# Entry
Amino acid sequence: MTDLRQQIEQAMSSEIQSQSTEPQDVATSETNETATAEPVEVINAPNSYTKEAKDWFATLPHENQKYLADREKQFEQGLSRARNQYSWVDKLYTDRKDALTGEGYENAQAYLNDLVMISDALHKDPAATINLLKQNFGIDDSSQDNALQKQVTALSQMISEQQKYLDSERQAKTAQEYNEFVNAKDDKGALKHTYLEEVRPEMIALLKAGLANNLEDAYNQAVWRVESVRDKIIAEKAGATVQEKATVAEKSKKAAFDPSSKSEPAPRELTLREELERNYKKFME
# Structure
């Protein structure tokens, strides 16, 4: 019983006792005044009141009866909302009542308390809590562990075999690209990468360091990094340039004795530095 109901019953008892000691003429006077008053709405005592409380309620003034009836109605509505709001708790227990009763849970509160305790333990020490739960429910996971280990082993073997296959495919592709690079020829049918054997170590170093994008890039860088090869290339380019100049000079000389020739005068001879720079640019194009 709520505090409000207890107060009402206590007040009822006091009121009944005081009424029994009042003079008869006062009661008669009140009766006469009631008889002459206008009819008012009859308010019945709440059903939750005891017989004594209902009798006391009937003696109260109309405004007091209305106040108490309204308060009781509000109380019942609030209680109903609370029951509806937490009805899922009762349903949670009721749906599992037979099993939970067998485990020693006599009500939903005891069951929920244990669930909260387990949740807290899992957050604090998951491994130990799971082991305790296994022991409590008699779970022997050794056979499960063996089966899981077999699956993991089989999966590892499959991944290893797949990796070997990919490696072999990658190696085969690399070998094919290298053979094509070694045997590549220029427009005249000569081997394109003449100094491959001499710059091979430098090419490997460039590729491993990530400084070259492919074999061709590594070769072009290596021939200028290896001093001996660079000197050969410069000498070859210089020799070709001298030969080219000689040819041009010969043509110019012949053109000078030909009155009908419209050839341009021979170009200015380049310095050694200009010659090297031009040859380098041509090589890198």
